[in-house]
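Q: How would the structure tokens look for this protein?
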Amino acid sequence: MDADAAGIILYNLGLTGYTTIARDYNSSVVQVTTADGTVLRDYYATGLAPGILKPDVLAPGLNVLAAWPPKTTDSASTGPFNVISGTSMATPHVSGVVALLKSLHPDWSPAAIKSAILTTSDAVDNARGPILDEQHEKANACGRGAGHVNPVKAADPGLVYDITADEFAGYICWLQSTHANATSTLLDASLPCATLPKITTEQLNYPTITVPLRPTTFTVNRTGGRPACPPSGPALRTVTNVGPAESTYTAKVEAPSTLTVHVSPETLSFSKAGEKKTFSVSVIGQDLIAEGSLSWVSEKHVVRSPVVAVVRVGSPPPAPGRTSTQH
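A: Here is the predicted structure in token form.
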């Protein structure tokens, strides 16, 4: 503008595709995208961390208009409002959902709250189409996680995958023994690794299911109500009934032809609130990485978990076009 230009047309880098990132420029600046439109932004942390699907969930985070303090040195905005994009905008949305769920269910654990958010998230967009990435390609599980957060559904999930403090501590202990960059100490000194079972990524009672892909069947396993390592015996995930006392859920599996997911039993029947049921998940696949989903469906609820099988759990996320999904 200092060169007497009448205006400026600002366009984003090709990496951002159809995404517009708003900035607080003056009215002489017009922003356009490499290609028009706004969809899933490329801020998300993708991959397996290690072996747990990340991101967990999507939330509004692109071009969020919010209050802004005046005279902030690291921004062109002078307040009282600004437009910001990124995970720093998505995180407060999820934090608000967590606060809502804790107020509705004060006895729920952090793991139960996370499970409720993940298993009720939307796997499709507002038009009931697939969630797209910034290039308008169908986002894979390493881009969308479990889906887009849905606060109304999260308040009444039906079933939750709960994890106790000592189980999660056992998982951290396993990470310390197998991953050089894992944290070296536990936050709670009352849970020393020497007294805890080592719980692998595959055995953690997480609401998303990530397993190593092998030419023979891999079974997610929990023995005697506690995770076991290495896998042996009946393969189990554990769900807790937080819905109607009398309820029955039927397993629904969606997977590409290259991924076989077997669930046993295929029906879970509950007679009281707080009752726990276990089920086995066996996976066999042929691709570098394959993804599907397991849903427990009742008359009132759908409790959905992504199922991701990779050749090596903890490896980098797949390149576009290298993931098999249900179409």
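The radius of gyration is 22 Å.

Confidence is low (pLDDT under 50) at residues 35-40, 222-235, 313-327.

Upvote if useful.
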